[in-house]
Each structure stands twice: as C-alpha cells, then as structure tokens.
Amino acid sequence: MDKREFLRGAKASLPTAVGYVSIGLACGVVGSSSGLTTWEMGLMSLFIYAGSSQFAFAALALADANLFSLTLTIFLINLRHFLMSLHVTTIFKKVSLVQGIGIGTLLTDESYGVLLSEQVRRKDISTSWMHGNNIIAYLSWVLSVVFGTLVGSYIPDPVSLGLDFALVAMFVSIFASQLTGMLHWLGGQKIAMILGAVAVSYLLLTIILSDSMAVLGATLVGCAVGVRMDDN
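Request: output the structure for the sequence above.
Response:
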C-alpha cells in the first residue's frame, strides 16, 4: 500500500469524518432511545455501517418489528450500494478481488461523493487513496455512534430534539457537492434532463411499487439516461 496516497485519501475524507461525528452521535442517541445497548449499536456500526439503515433499524426496534421486517428493510435501503459499487469498479478496473471487496464493503454515499469529487481533479486514483478515504470515515462513524449511545442514556427524550433529521441534512450536503462535479462534466441542461427523468420515473413507479423500490428504479432510469447522454 502506498502510504503517501493513503494519507492523501485520509485527508480528503476529513470533512466526511467531521460530518460523521455529528451524525454518528445523533444515531447513537436515537439508538439508545430505542432501547439498544452500546454493544448493539457498536456492532451494528461495525457490520451494517450505513447511517440511514441504522436510523431505520432503531425506529423498527422501537416498534418491536420482527426479524424479517428488519432484514428486508435494511436490504432495500442499502440496495443503492450495488449501483455505487458497480460504478466504482469502472474506476478501479485492475484491483484484486480482496482489494475490491475491501473498497466495496466500506463504500458509503459520502466516501463515494468524495471519490467523485477527486475524479474531477484527476483520473489516476489509486486503491491506497480509496482505502484512506474509506477507513477514516469508517472509524469516525463507529466511534461516534458508540459515544452517542453512551451519551443518549443520559438524555430523557432524545427524539424530541429531532436528531433523526441530521442524516437528511448530510444527504442534502452530499448532493450539493456531487451536483457541482456533475455540472462540471455535463452542464446544466443535461443535469436538468437527468433529474427530470428521475423525478418522473419515481412518480410513476410509486403507483405500482413501494417507495424503496421506486427510488431504486428511478435511480436506474437516471443512470441509463446519464449514460446515454454521455455516449452522445
């Protein structure tokens, strides 16, 4: 592993890591209010490692949902990671299977966004850089969630603070960052057409599918439209 590139990726990930501190603390507090222990939230962060899924898990645990409902919900929420991972394989084409699994396992919306921003500046991104990007964010998330769960046990009514909205705020920030890079590549007119295709397809798909599946379908439509435009 190239130590210099790893540190460069870790440095690029610092804004994500700082953001994860606030979101992770919020997730830990919400998890604590749902009756989950510090160990349970810590292990969930280590193995699931997905903010939106962990917020959903905490809500379902509070509602005493069964194991099937929990598993299916987490699976559907995380389906988007398949799409992100597929794109990442086109960036790191010559990596070994172990390296690829390592990158894909720790890939998140945020580390993917950082990768796209880096790709605007240069094309020769190394796996060491990506590992640095992923690992710093991962450690920040796990530690923040554990600490947040500990703190949450001392807060009487954490749900009333609206902490579960913190993740939505971060997603808005990520979208704004990625939109800047997309405008650099494609231009405003093409971006508007892609977003329009996503919006229309989502509205149509919600008629026959669940919200989660409609989001996935609309994402695929948006990807197809984007690829088509890029070919042209």
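Residues 29 and 112 are 26 Å apart (CA to CA).
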